# Entry
Amino acid sequence: MGNLGVLERLMMDVLWDTTTPVTANELKDLLLNPSVSAAQAKPLATTTILTVLSRLEAKGFVQRDRAVRPHAYSAVMTRAAHTAGLMHDVLGQVPDRQAALVRFIGGVTPDEAETLRKLLGVASTATNVS
Amino acid sequence: MTTTAVLLGIVAVLLAWPIPVALARAGWPPRSPGIALILWQAIALSGGVSMIGSLLLYGLVPFGDTLLHGLVALGTNLRAGTLPSGTSFTHVLALGGAILLGTHLLLNLSATFVRAERQRRRHFTLIGLLSDPLSGQPGMRVIDYPAPVAYCLPGAGRSATVLSNGLLHLLDADQVQAVIAHEQAHLLQQHHLVLLAFKSWHSALPWFPIANRAENAVALLVEMIADDHARRVVNDQTLARAIAIVGFALAGVATPTTNEADATALAAASASLGARPGSAGRLRAEPEHPAHQVLPRVARLVDPPRPLRLPATTGAVTIAVLLLIGPALILFAT
# Structure
């Protein structure tokens, strides 16, 4: 994560924790509030915040309400929904989505489970004996 | 040159059917998965070179008596828009086939890599937003998710190993170390490159059953190689249990463990999965994919087979080298 990545993370954390849409200025204040966000010593420039917000909007994490002035921003999905979507891709059956990563292990079928129990049972006795 | 073309054609057919089938059925690969992986790569590469080379040589017969002369003459004829006398329809067909097959395979390979790189970038962005670093473990990220998930995200310059909270709760410290060592072997040895190459081969030739077999065999071999790497850090039993516990939890069946802490953690994990009816069904990870097959991996940890002896290893590596240089030598010596 570069510097922009860090800012994106900070802002998403705030947006995920607030229930109502916020303007860039409100977000600036929230970022300074230690009870809401992690340690932001000096205020960010509003332009920086707007830049990061439009990056996040382009990536599909943030939506902008253009009907109000100034524009109000909110998270498109909750953090949990994003995580669930990502993990679904990781564990899922769409092989194309898995091309980028290497997974540890998948689930077992009931038949395999039975064999596996026997295998591991045998193994632990063998270890005890030796 | 016709004889050489036929000879290469025979090599191509052997490498496309009987040899990979024999390797896929052989019992020894779990003993020395690294050697088997080398052989698979040699077969795939050599098979492709032989097939394209055979078509090319046959198509160039009317143009010249060596590969080089033929190619030069082909260029001259292309510019002039002529065909040398004695060119038959089959020669043109063979030339076209060689060009089409070669371009198709190369384009597919680059498309597969480009697509994977795009997915990887997107995934890195999401991981950056959704996960936290694991303290004391550089390159490790923890994501808040109840199911036990572990995977590595390889990439040029940056890479990450991602573990879920569910996994950290389910496994004890040694078992987590086993998982980490396994994933780091994937990253260290750049296994994703081999996997992508075989994936691309399969997607380029979806009707070719051997490509599917090869992709599956390679995927399982890569897991075994990573397991062997993890065995240097933890004992076999720990790794076997880690694999089995995660496999059981993902399938939603009771784990065979006698350890009470494990059982409680698993029950908690299953309960939290059950609490999300939508995702629980999807979490039944596919058992068909051999790379994720639990049994062959656990079986060789529980009762480790003896690695191939030196003569067999030397023999296999020699065959791989011959496969790689043989067709190239035939092609250019013509």
Summary: Confidence is low (pLDDT under 50) at residues 255-288 of chain B. The first helix of chain B runs from residue 2 to 16. The beta strands of chain B are 131-133, 140-143, 150-153, 160-164.
